[in-house]
Amino acid sequence: MQQNNIESTKEEFYFQWHITDRCNLRCSHCYQENYRSQDEMSIDSLKMIADKLISALNKWQREGRIALTGGEPLLKKELFPLLDYLQESEQIKNISILSNGTLLNKEIAEQLHSIKKLHFVQISLDGACAEINDVIRGKGSFHKALKAIRLLNQNGIPVRLMFTIHKGNVNEISPLIDLAISEDIDGLTFERFVPCGNGKGMKDMILSPGELRDAYQRISERADLEYDRGSKLTILKLRTLFACIDKNGTRDGSNIPFKKQLGAMCSVGIDSLCFLPDGSVLPFLDSHLFNDTLDWLISQQNEDYGWGYCQRQPVGSTPFCTGVAITGLLQYPDKVAPEVIANGLKWIEENQLEEGLWPDHYIEEGSVWAFYALTEGYKFLKGQR
Fold it and tell me: What is the pLDDT of residues 249-286, one digit of tens each?
């Protein structure tokens, strides 16, 4: 393995690595629709990718956090050899595994205990009881996941839960928090349902803007309550859309305890990347997925011609999202109509503050991206004349 000695690194970089598309479940809301194995990599190829990640981290002088996921990563026989390989590197700070938990047994839990850089194992649940969860994730999945949680706890491995909110389980928020506390869970993340992959036929299950805001408000209030109680459970509120209940950014900054802060900028391409089982880095530049993504991004332009965290969500258009969207679209000028760019730039101009900055949850990021988009956007439009 490629070794690199570093004295200190000031920042981290996050990689989410899908090492397999195979999965033993077929969750109704899953963003996947491909469960084939032919694109998977051998252990030698996985090590080659790992070396490239380590080399990049060394060049950037950053420490790496890697989450191994799928599909279901426990189906990949190369999982433990890869874990052993990754933890040998000084550049890798910690490793996590994102799993459905249904395949985890005593032997696997003991093997995971031996991985010294294992930060946590995340288990997905979509209800606080089998009646709700199993409708979404499959019969028997709730009790299998619960068994996995207890095995991990018995082996001293921190456990986090992931819960995807939609109309069918939005009332499970409080019961799931209660369950997490009773099962000695370390962290809990709530994510909203996005209809793609297996879940693309479930658009009627998307929460309305008002329902989403209400759900996030309830989560935030309960998170603060557990923090004040000194609970072991940390309810993570740094997903981007949590900013919709704190649009003016009053809940970020050094004067607010980290666990009480709300919202965060999108990290994709800034301090995180995603890898697929064949080694591809999202997005694909020469595939139908890339074209679909480009078309989708254009379609998400709001009626005021800006972009937001999600179209028609309560936070509305933001300078950060609009600047990032325009900057991305400008990389492919032959695929984007000039008026899309022109209208977006008009929104940025109209929302500049008197002092020359732009308001955003994090004002410096909003201003940087808005100004960069203006600079590059007008270069593009000048070339169209």
Answer: 677 666 778 788 877 766 766 788 898 898 888 754 44
What residue type is assigned to position 50 of the chain? Answer: A
Alpha-carbon distance of 345 to 218, in angstroms, equals: 36
pLDDT confidence of residue 60: 87
Kindly provide the residue ranges of all beta strands, DSSP E only, lying in the chain, ordered along the sequence.
11-18, 62-69, 92-99, 118-124, 159-165, 187-192, 234-236, 272-275
What are the DSSP calls for 324-370, one per residue? HHHHHHTT-GGGS-HHHHHHHHHHHHHT--TTS----SSHHHHHHHH
Q: Which of 6, 65, 110, 60 is nearest to 272 (CA)?
A: 65
Sheet strands side by side (includes 92-99): 234-236, 187-192, 159-165, 118-124, 92-99, 62-69, 11-18, 272-275
Which amino acid is residue 216, in one-letter code? Y
How far is it, in rounded angstroms, from Cα 109 to Cα 123?
Answer: 13
297-346 residue pLDDT tens? 898 899 999 998 655 555 578 898 899 999 989 988 888 999 999 999 99
Distance of CA 290 to the CA centre of its chain: 19
Sign of CA dihedral 126, 130, 134, 136: negative
Spatial contact of 139 and 159, defined as CB atoms under 8 Å apart: no
Q: What are the pLDDT digits (tens) for 161-186?
A: 999 999 999 999 999 999 999 999 99
Judge whether residue 26 has pLDDT over 50. Answer: yes
- Taking the C-alpha atoms of residue 359 and residue 319, their distance in angstroms, rounded to an integer, is 7
User: DSSP state, 214?
Assistant: H
pLDDT for 6 equals: 32
Q: What's the CA angle centered on 29, arms 140 and 143, to 5 degrees?
A: 15
DSSP classification of residue 168: T
Domains of the chain in start order, with CATH, are 11-236 (3.20.20.70), 288-384 (no CATH)
